[in-house]
Amino acid sequence: MLIGALRARLERLGGTVTSAVWRLGFASRFLFYLVVHSGTALRRFRLTIAQIYFAGVLSLVIILVSGLFVGMVLALQGYETLQRFGASESLGVLVALSLVRELGPVVAGLLFASRAGSAITAEIGLMKATEQISAMEMMAVDPIARVVAPRFWGGVLSMPLLAGLFSAMGIFGGYLVGVQLIGVDAGAFWSQMQAAVDWNNDILNGVIKSVVFGVAVTWIAVFEGYDAPPTAEGVSRATTRTVVTSSLAILALDFVLTALMFTGGNHQ
Amino acid sequence: MNRSILDLWVGLFVAAGFGGLLFLALKVGNLATFSTDATYQVNAKFSNIGGLKERGPVKSAGVVVGRVAGIRFDGETYEAMVTMNLDAKFQFPRDTTAKILTSGILGEQYVGLEAGGDGVMLKNGDRLRLTQSAVVLENLISQFLFSKAAEGKDPPKEPAK
Q1: N or C: which end of chain A has fewer CB within 10 A?
Q2: Residues B92, B86: contact at Cβ < 8 Å?
Q3: Do residues A146 and A37 lie in contact, with contact meaning Cβ atoms separated by under 8 Å?
Q4: Where are the extended beta strands (E) located within chain A?
Q5: Which of residues 39-98 of B touch A (CB under 8 A)?
Q6: CB–CB of B15/B47 below 8 Å?
Q7: Which helix (H) or strand (E) holds A198?
Q8: What is the pLDDT of residue B106?
Q9: CB contact at 8 A, A91 and A80
Q10: What are the percentages of helix, strand and coil residues in chain B, rounded to 5?
């Protein structure tokens, strides 16, 4: 009796693990197929441009407003701590480094996942549920090349631009609060920032992070949409899973990338 | 939505995105000042570099004239070997002194160059002979304490007479 229950548990656990590995394999094969069949998306670039509009341009408002407020809050909080040590002139360094290295790519990625990733999943899932995908296959149009690939590249191209705008807007917000409101010296704010922020080590690594997050989020989004059961419930579950999985993926990847990029030892 | 209006928005978005990156590069990261300028490399040995970091500034008269390119330990002399990239615009005499200084009381450490009087200028790969190490706070405090203790010993003898 007891052994039987235990065995059933173990079997269920094994089943979960196996299906997770199966899905990972399918997702990887899907990504490979997608990249190989991206010819249409790149040749007929208008398809991709339309997706850049949906994923990038329509996310602009939330990205810019969040960036502004994150920068303003950083400046307020940072000033409180820094002025205790008489180092309030380093406010620019604090705001710029936190945004460019971490907050820009990560917060922009999380917002992008919930704003654009979920929309991509829902759209592809509904296309599948309403049998538009099968109809395309019927007409000998490859749905991955025609529907999925433009969305993937649109997201991948939008993400670094959004993260850059987020950081720039955040630094502007930090400037507004730090210099205009609190009264930190503008010259010290900018010059200390310029002395501390390095193009290769800080800005370029931030851009690399945002590209990686962009690939991860859009990959998860298009895969979840394509893999969603063609029912209302299936699409809604897939949308939720996109947001949860891609948020977790962003945080895990961010830890790995930070460990690789910023713990080299000599540079601070 | 009209195709051309959509293109306009995407174009604006891409331009704004690159504008943001350009802002980060020029205004925040100060890429323009130190990147492609021609530099020459000089070395200096210090018995202690304190908290000097790679990419730290090299200043002369308070003006940044280069960056620390590398720091390594010399196993034979037990000294630190600091490699510096100096801007080729600035030529220094061969007997220039290199000191490790601190900006402010808690600030970062940098290499300060003081030009000498030699007519021969430094070339790529040269070594600065005259160096002064970083001031280590612990040593300073122990020196201060020893000198205080030594002072404290002497005075009691004299009034005793």
Answers
A1: N
A2: yes
A3: no
A4: none
A5: 53-55, 57, 71
A6: no
A7: none
A8: 67
A9: no
A10: 30, 35, 40
Q: What is the pLDDT of residues A67-118, one digit of tens each?
A: 999 999 999 999 999 888 878 888 989 999 999 999 999 999 999 999 999 9
Say yes or no to pLDDT of A168 above 60. yes
Is the pLDDT at A267 greater than 50? The verdict is no
Residue B96: is its pLDDT beyond 60? Answer: yes
> Is A87 in contact with B23 (Cβ distance < 8 A)?
no
Shortest Cα distance from B29 to chain A (angstroms)? 5
Please report the ipTM that was assigned to this predicted complex. 0.71
Q: Could you tell me which of B83, B45, B24 has the C-alpha nearest to residue A266?
A: B83
Phi-psi region of A141 (alpha: psi -120 to 50; beta: other; left: phi over 0): beta
Report the residue of B2, B12, B22, B24 to disrupt the A interface, i.e. the one with the largest count of A CBs within 10 Å. B24
Residue whose C-alpha is closest to residue A164's, from A113, A196, A116, A205: A205
Amino acid identity of B84? M
C-alpha pair distances (Å), B43 with each of A109, B58, B67, B97, B127: 44, 12, 12, 12, 5
Token representation of residue A107: 């917060």
The string of pLDDT tens digits covering residues B102-118 is 877 667 788 999 988 88
Q: Are A164 and B20 in contact (CB under 8 A)?
A: yes
